[in-house]
Request: fold
Amino acid sequence: MHKSSPVVDSKLSRVGTTIFTVMSKLAADCGAINLSQGFPDFQADPSLFDATWRAMRAGRNQYPPLAGVPELRQAIADKVASLYNAVYDVESEITVTAGATQAVFTAIAAFVRQDDEVVVFEPVYDSYVPAIETVGGRAVYARLGYPGYRPDWQQVRALISPRTRMIIINSPHNPTGSLLGADDLEGLAELTRGTDIVILSDEVYEHIVYDGAQHQSVAGHPELAARSIVVSSFGKTYHITGWKVGYVLGPMELMAEFRKVHQFNVFTVNTPCQLGIAEYMGDASRHLGLAAFYEEKREFFRAQLGASRFELLPCNGTYFQLARYSAISDLPDREFACWLAREVGVAVIPVSVFYRDGQDDRVVRFCFAKQEATLAAAGERLRRV
Reply:
């Protein structure tokens, strides 16, 4: 430490290194199979790389417009219109972002002021609350009921106050894989009607929904769309999480405020990657076929654990599988996750980290966005526990 270092009054004194970094490092240190962090271990489609390379070779390597290249914004508008019968203006209502986490932070920074309240749902994805607290807001916690992880809209109603500025929803939900239905969107619309509450809808797993269900986007609900910023991610859709490219949708009035912050914390996003993705989106089967692709992996992984002592919980969306381990161990889930990585050789995420009070239902999260060989090897180890 330098002698002249100032004393820092941390804005995030309770925040340490994210659990995803901790468990991925432990997996690497132990040589464990990493089913903790949510990224694929398989390659994306080479034609996406080819499209991006063509953009590079064509000289498209300088700053793009603040909102994103027109080709990608048009492709996004076309997709959203086709899927949700929703019309967003390419110039004023769509912005390309450096991934979904940046989009979420920017939306919170744009609308949440000092002492404003933001309703979040536990178990809550770990980036939401630190972003709220960084800008001086206060998180107010609703809870998805275990084990089905369904919202209680009457509970949410009781949490809304004159200081409520935003409600953050996430469907398909990380970490639980639960979905919001059309009735949930109606309930949310009824709660916010006549208010100035902004909805931030994290829909990064929108294309990963199983068993014939349809993703219910707030973009397709006109009343909610008028007060919502919708976040999505190409990383989850096209197996390119490291590219960090996503986008937001929102009505012109909200998007104008979003862009005021976006221009100073990111400004623009990688030009050739945007152009490559725009070209790749021309074949809609690439996102329309994603649910079937991951449903096959879900079924394969669940079959691997079928003869284990893990109790599998429902997985209706995302590429995460929750499982109870109470038949295996009485250890708290953080300790169990560390033991599993060190002694069994499989890294997972303990679900208690997604709760403010550390609620521990003896549940861990597996990521099955992996090659079958990886899942089979993990299954063989987990069946021995």
Q: What stands out?
A: The CA atoms of residues 201 and 274 lie 22 Å apart. The radius of gyration is 21 Å. The chain has a mean pLDDT of 96.
